[in-house]
Amino acid sequence: MQELSCVPDFRKRKEYAIGELLMGGLGMFLFRQDSRNEINNKRREAGFSKSFERCFGTRLAHGDSIADVLCRLNPDSLEEVKMNLMAGLFEQKFLRKHRLLDKYYPLAVDATGVVSFDHRHCPQCLTRTSKNGQTTYFHYVLEAKLVTSDGLCLSLASEWIENPNGEFEKQDCERKAFARLAAKLKKHYPRLPVCILADGLYPYEGAFDICQGNGWKYIFVLKDNTLKSVQEDLVLPRRRSPKKSCYHVKGGLRIASQYRFENGLAYKKRKVNWIECVEARTRDMPRERRPAKEKDTETHCFGYLTNLEVEGGNVIALAAGGRLRWKIENEGFNTQKRGGYELEHKFCRTSLNGLKNYYTLLQIAHALNQFVERSGVVREQLKTHSKETVKNIWRMLVAYMIFACEQEHFSSRNGNGIPPAPA
Ligand SMILES: [Zn+2]
């Protein structure tokens, strides 16, 4: 709340303080209300507004007043608040246990679609025209999220992929946005030891340069059809390089993994290191009980390029680090789209500022909720009731917010918490 109150106020008429309005916007996502209408409905319940005020020390403003301020607020101010909150987490050091090789914070970088329209929404929309001549207008954002093996996924910085306001030759794209995102990350987390995890779009000269220039480590997915010269050099190592095997059972599957690696492959002026993991997965049950169509064993191959020195002792940890990249899609984008945050909902149809500010509030709320979900009370509830879900716990929380004050009202009248009997 304190951080939200520090956002510069640009308004002349003020019924609510800026911190109150921003807290209201944040509240919509904290309580997983999937639209402005939903939070307005809750606001009409006297109990909810009262509990909100008691919880956060601020009044809950009407959704329209909140939207009005979010449409006019410079999105950089809220992004700054988010980055300051995240920088604070690193200072408290409890994220240290999630570092790769006890040294590097794993940062997944990837883009996702936020909204799309069948008409031009603003001058900066990206556009795509299909074969039948229909044009779609949309907004994408590039995210750098801290990802951990136990499922934390926290937005450290966001960069919008959008066209400039004015004339341009080529549309903006993920690679161009990555250069801007990297500059932002370096500025706000200058000494953070980072390992960038990214998909098959990232093994290219520019990304290697950016990581090297910032002193960052990287693990990028290597697809079969990228970086021809590296692929040619891999013919021999694929057959002869050191091999390490491991075997484990997970989610009803028996998984046998074989790792190969090679350091110092030449790519233009630089050297890159290569890791490959071939996984054979077999359902952990006798053949006769498995579905008839199911293959005995399914094989999957994952290739990575990295600037971390690979050796027998760390190859398994590095390949696991590379695969953490998936968390940005599952725990990150999917949860924000389908886990009650409605990332793709058009919270603001007319203003680009509004769209970006709602997005940033969603990122902050999702981060805070992840810590609440990891708290003792919620964990205990999930452990005790096997069919309980986080979504349902939040539904109960909202119900509690509505009725808690009423309950106290009755308690103070007849002292036993039971509503008085009808006359
Ligand atoms: Zn637009």
Detailed description of the structure:
With 423 residues, the protein is α+β, with helices and mostly antiparallel strands. Among the domains are: 1-73 and 375-423, no CATH class; 214-305, no CATH class. 43% of the residues lie in helices and 22% in strands. The protein contains 15 helices and ten strands. It has helices spanning 2-5, 18-30, 36-44, 46-56, 63-72, 75-92, 174-188, 205-214, 228-233, 235-240, 315-323, 326-338, 352-373, 376-384, 390-414; strands spanning 105-117, 126-129, 135-147, 153-161, 194-198, 217-221, 243-250, 253-267, 270-283, 298-306. Strands 1, 2, 3, 4, 5, 6, 7, 8, 9 and 10 form a ten-stranded mixed beta sheet that branches. Strand 5 (194-198), helix 8 (205-214) and strand 6 (217-221) form a beta-alpha-beta unit. Helix 6 (75-92) packs parallel to helix 13 and helix 7 (174-188) runs parallel beside helix 8 (205-214). The radius of gyration is 25 Å and the shape is globular. Mean pLDDT is 89; it is low at 413-420. Zinc ion binds next to strand 3.
